[in-house]
Design brief:
single chain, alpha/beta, TIM Barrel, 8-stranded parallel β-sheet, 11 helices, 43% helix
């Protein structure tokens, strides 16, 4: 990839915590040419428990030293889950006063100033079915302003990156997350755009036998037009990933179905794919979304956040296999963008992006 688009991968995309060691995944990421790592807290917790007697700060020091040796940049720590819009304000205060303080310590050791906050998808009360979160946008924005302001007050300051999760309780499409980022209006609060979550709302429907919505064509075009108008300064990094078109709708009869879990979540946890793995069932127009984001002027980290049922396979070859597949998908992204640029140059005489 060019110097303007930097290849990254989350450690969770290279194997399951507790099944494959974090050091082995970091080694494979480096060997295969990745430059950045999204560090998932679950993997760090697993390393702390298995190798450092539960000392998370010691585990963080170990990971930082290893990444320095491997020339890997830790671009963020994630996910800071179930935060904004909580109805239980005591829990809200606990997250800000206790958990966030701990994450600041870990992040400082890791050498990253960025913490990812996914839109809240806290499950409903299992007995009453009532949500534990509020859809009041004023409250959501206020909560996110609070976390940004606390981060800004640190020395040196921290940034936060907000991502719309496609099964979020109240924020589940990228347009709403972008509007929220603008309303939060803090210089240390930005956006993560994920092709899976974007397309899971405007293009794919896991409850449909075809896995495609009835309005996919028009919704996609509207989405792409909006993406081209986004302020690239608001985008801290992007995640590029596809999904598998399953053999049947993900309803109550499907093996991946989990009662009470949103179908998009079950699909995501079991069947994400790297971009352009059509032979494995990839089918979404990932290239068009990436092209639109680049047209808006984005430059920076391109990360491959993948979850898949196979990642828990008890096989030491999994990290190397997924690292190889991931870097090849990014190379293919470069090739396909280059093809688009050739056609664009023929039409306009201007090459907009080069990978």
């Amino acid at each position: 990839m060019s110097s303007h688009l930097l290849p990254a991968i989350p450690n969770m995309s290279l194997g399951a915590p507790g099944v494959h060691s974090l050091p082995s995944k970091l080694h494979q990421a480096s060997i295969h040419g990745f430059q950045g790592i999204e560090l998932f807290i679950e993997d760090l917790n697993s390393l702390a428990e298995t190798s450092f007697s539960g000392n998370h700060l010691a585990a963080a020091h170990h990971v930082r030293n290893l990444c320095d040796k491997l020339n890997l940049t830790i671009i963020c720590l994630q996910p800071f889950l179930f935060y904004e819009g909580l109805l239980d304000r005591t829990q809200h205060d606990h997250l800000l006063n206790t958990k966030l303080t701990h994450w600041f310590k870990i992040s400082r050791i890791l050498g990253t100033d960025l913490i990812q906050v996914p839109s809240n998808f806290l499950p409903a009360d299992p007995e009453t079915g009532e949500l534990k979160t509020s859809g009041d946008m004023d409250l959501i924005i206020s909560d996110l302003q609070k976390i940004a302001d606390i981060g800004a007050a640190q020395d040196p300051p921290f940034r936060f990156v907000y991502e719309a999760i496609s099964w979020g309780n109240h924020v589940y499409n990228w347009e709403d997350s972008y509007r929220i980022v603008e309303e939060v209006n803090r210089p240390n609060f930005g956006l993560c755009l994920d092709t899976f979550h974007i397309l899971a709302r405007v293009y794919a429907d896991p409850l449909s036998p075809t896995f495609i919505t009835s309005t996919a064509k028009q919704d996609l075009q509207a989405c792409l037009a909006s993406l081209r108008r986004i302020d690239p300064r608001r985008i801290y990094y992007i995640q590029v990933v596809d999904g598998e078109r399953l053999n049947s709708a993900l309803d109550e009869t499907h093996p991946f179905y989990v009662k009470g879990r949103p179908c998009r979540m079950s699909w995501s946890r079991n069947a994400r794919l790297f971009p352009f793995e059509e032979e494995r069932g990839a089918f979404m127009p990932v290239l068009e979304v990436v092209k639109a984001i680049l047209d808006a002027g984005f430059e920076g980290w391109v990360s491959l956040e993948l979850f898949h049922r196979d990642l828990a396979r008890k096989d030491d070859t999994v990290p190397a296999e997924y690292a190889a597949r991931g870097i090849e998908s990014l190379r293919e992204l470069g090739r396909r963008l280059s093809d688009l640029n050739v056609r664009s140059a023929a039409e306009t005489g201007v090459v907009q992006h080069r990978l």
